[in-house]
Protein 1
Amino acid sequence: MGFSNEWDDKYQDNTHMSVWPWTNLVSLVMRNKPQKRNFKILELGCGAGANIPFFVSLEADYYSVEGSKTIVDKLHHRFPYLKDNIMIGDFTDFIPETQFDLIVDRASLTCNHEESIIKSLKKCHERLNVGGKYIGVDWFSTHHSDYKKGIQAEDVWTRKDMVGSGFEGTGRAHFSDQNHLMELFKAFEVKSLSHSVLTEKIPTLNTTVATWNFVMEKV
Ligand SMILES: C[S@@+](CC[C@H](N)C(=O)[O-])C[C@H]1O[C@@H](n2cnc3c(N)ncnc32)[C@H](O)[C@@H]1O
């Protein structure tokens, strides 16, 4: 099982309501998107829809699979013309039966455990056209200070019950080191990989947010 219902609780409480597109996602997409018009894009876990207006502005044919019914209902209201394309589902079990030019995932698949991630990536690879790219943004790194929080979930990379951290009440978080990422994406060719480490000093002392951003291509 992949999707954690705790995400639905968060959206019912009107938290995690990010509505502006994420900077790293915008720059990676602008550098790596297909050159053709109306390219087909799948966003894994669109959340509150932060990135949707950006993809719409690119005239992309946009799809998303998101596990929270609460947030998907809100998005159908906000983007009625995407009602058929923003789907409620668990993307570790279900990827739409169509071929995509681009799959984008900001901090979504990394909210699942290893076995579910492997299952989902296999399907994503099948549904990408040759030359299509998987852009991963803000995948959690083992250098993140919260990797020590909570308790181990299904595997050594996955934590849960991370009370007192930004992950509190959001189910699982999967943290990767470089070798693990390479293993997860072994079916793809790595086009770029960067590791970002940000240490906050105020108001929290020495909290380290460490994440991976990458572009993988189906060859
Ligand atoms: C950290 S939020 C990121 C939301 C969005 N990608 C963004 O950048 O603003 C993670 C999202 O992934 C969704 N999610 C996590 N695991 C999922 C799964 N297995 N199937 C469907 N949605 C999932 C959650 O419901 C949540 O909306």
Protein 2
Amino acid sequence: MLQLKRIFSLILVLVLCLGLSVQVQASAIKKAKQKDKELKNQKNQTQEEKEALTQQLNDIVDDMEQTQKRLSAKEQEIKQKEEELVNAKIDENNQYESMKKRIVYMYENGNTEFIEILCNSKDIGEFLNKAEYISRISEYDRAQLVTFQNVVEEVKKQEEALQTEYTELTALREELGVKQASVEKLLADTNTKLEELEQKIGANAARLDKLLKEAAEAAARKKAAEEAAAKAAAQAAAAAAAQQADGGGGAAVQAAGPPVVSGGGQFTNPCPGASYISSEFGEYRDPSDPSHKGMDFAAGAGVPTYAAADGTVVIANYSDSAGNWVVINHGNGLSTKYMHHSALTVSAGQRVTKGQQIGLVGSTGWSTGPHLHFQVEVNGMAVNPRNYL
Ligand SMILES: [Zn+2]
């Protein structure tokens, strides 16, 4: 009996520790999930930046191609213009040379030539025609020379204009080249950032996986420990029953502790040692139990339970569903039910007072873990226990 109690306490401590470690794991898992979300947001942002930069780079490359085409066209035009200039200069030079020859010829041969030409005229009409012809030749030569010189000047101007455009285009190409290099650098940085984020996401996912696995293992260990605790409690109760040979209708009856009255309600808290309320009245749990008829006080196995008010114990025995349970009649149509005990400390027919111990928390009957199911009924109808506490 004593040894069982010792084992039982050890298991209780183990259950509590396991519960704590599950909580710590839950918080780590939450953090890892949050981090995953943050990293993925960052990745999406970076991806958008990358797309914008790629678009920018494509635009610059298009501009480059356009500029290169214009440069090539301009080179072609300049080449043509240079040829034109050469030809214009040749024309100008030819005219100048022939004009010089004609003038030199005329002067070298002296006026006699002129006179000869003129004097060989048959008549005045021919003379005048020849004189005019000579004067026209020189006039024509002069005009031609001016025309050719003008053409040379015009072609030179055009070539200069083309050279200016060419220089501007070259500058534009250089500017685009610089822009392209800077966007390419930004794009490379973005890619590096993306790779880093991918790595972080991967590492975090691996960590999350590990945490989830550990949490599942811890939950399984906790469940096993709780089951062991319940089993040990049931064994302790059975041993007590065997010792006292006082069945109370099949349930083990154990010595009770001192009475405890707590809270300011009509009823005292039936399980002040509970760690939390695991289920409220009216809560949906599963299709077979759509509305919870009582309130569940989650507590370690062996925590004492108390009569909510003065009354008479009408049931104190074992049931397949309620486990070791107690029903107390308080009169005036009011009754209370206490289920899933590991052991009872009262017997049917016994008078109890408010706060008197009636049993020890367990997980007997249809129960998944140690708790006290506390139910309040008015004329056989379950009502919310909170109204009485
Ligand atoms: Zn319950």
Protein 3
Amino acid sequence: MIVVGAGNAGMSAAFAARERGASVLVLEKAAREWAGGNSAFTAGAMRLEHGGLADLLDLVEGDERHAVTDLPPYTEFAADLERVTLGRGDPDMARVLVGDSAAALRWLKGRGVRFRLMYERQAYERDGRWTFWGGLAVGVVDGGRGLVDQQAAAARRFGIEVRHESPVEGLVPGGVLVRLPNGGFQELRARSIVLAAGGFESNPALRAGYLGPNWDVAKVRGTPFNTGEVLLEALEIGAAPYGNWSGCHAIQWDAGAPPTGDLELTNRFSRQSYPVGIVVNSRGERFIDEGKDFRNYTYAEYGAEVLRQPNGVAFQIFDQRSVPLLRGIDYDAPGSTRVEAGSLRELGEALRIDAERLERTVSDFNAAIVGGPFDPAVKDGLRAEGLAVPKSNWALALDTPPYVAFPVTCGITFTFGGLRVDGDARVLDLSGRPIPWLFACGELVGGLFFHNYPGGSGLTAGTVYGRRAGYAATA
Ligand SMILES: Cc1cc2nc3c(=O)[nH]c(=O)nc-3n(C[C@H](O)[C@H](O)[C@H](O)COP(=O)(O)OP(=O)(O)OC[C@H]3O[C@@H](n4cnc5c(N)ncnc54)[C@H](O)[C@@H]3O)c2cc1C
């Protein structure tokens, strides 16, 4: 079997096929140091259904904090997926994702991937107890880099060959065309081919073409290698397009970040603590409900909202009450773009935005706050009402200088449009029939995510569909 792409989805397919006795060759476009695609850039967060802390103890590594942890059962994965995708996702695909989620993670553990509870990202501590929030608790030890390294070690153990610097640029029935350094092609054939080469988020022309104007100037959070050629090639040979081709996952990202992902800092340009602050544009106006829901259910759609603002930038604003709540691993990252001032007027001037309007925005906001008390671990109902743009939870007044601002822009994570597959990850043609030798998994598959996305679902989807692809391709 040939797998195209050595990210989490492709490696999951490779493990499953090897488990069934197939010989497996993984073709990866990038050099070894970039191996792992977007999967290497992740926090390693993986969403699964579970029955609470006791149910997870066989999956995650020991931690002395377990004894003082509140982690309720999570059985709302399907409902969360349906809610944030506005009911547009394929219900059969959602059933597969949710139904396989717990088994797939335990299976991945059996392939050498180590899991832990993500206290630093998904829990708040109060009076010595940790409370997990937002349906997401489990992550890979050492994040995305750990995941990719653990999978590479397992591939060596299982005798799976991963060939780097081997870009696939063509598909023929039962085979792939690999571009050679001399510009020519080598044809490699196999009984089945699994496509796992990611979406088209790193291709500015395809972004502008499918996502719309200005998407070419968005920053890319992850690998520069997911440029969509394998996806286009599959369409060319008759595979059916599926899902939300004008939609993507995009977040608020440090405005000073490089144009594509940074191997050292990876995920640390993320600016995810906006629910405890406010976000304004260069006119000094708020434009999103920062507290609409837990961050896990809003972050993936707010990148696009920032891109719609003048110059595609915005400014997250906090004061000395909210600064201690910022997720330090990201906001304190080396080179983080940060501006501090003793008054809102000075802050606005330093940011070169409408400072007078910023002052008015904050005083209107502070005056509109009702409810509470503040509790970041639940939807606390501490809200700002009666404004053109309300804030539904965690509406702490901004009144304790010095004030701190973090300029953000849109960072695209991955695209939602892709190929159509059935429950065995077989690629379907335009008549809805499986192409017998062709399978697909991961970002390159469409149909699961529309408009938005519940955090931690991408890796789980890659493993769920990768595992199914590997089994079906060797059946
Ligand atoms: C910064 C960041 C943080 C994230 N955090 C999380 C998280 O915590 N949890 C979560 O669930 N999701 C997260 N995601 C999303 C997650 O990365 C993806 O959903 C998931 O990794 C996709 O896996 P994949 O295997 O489909 O793609 P990838 O991991 O991107 O793998 C695709 C591979 O295909 C290769 N390739 C591309 N073109 C070719 C070609 N022509 N020939 C051969 N190989 C090719 C690429 O080089 C790459 O190695 C994050 C993404 C980013 C960018």
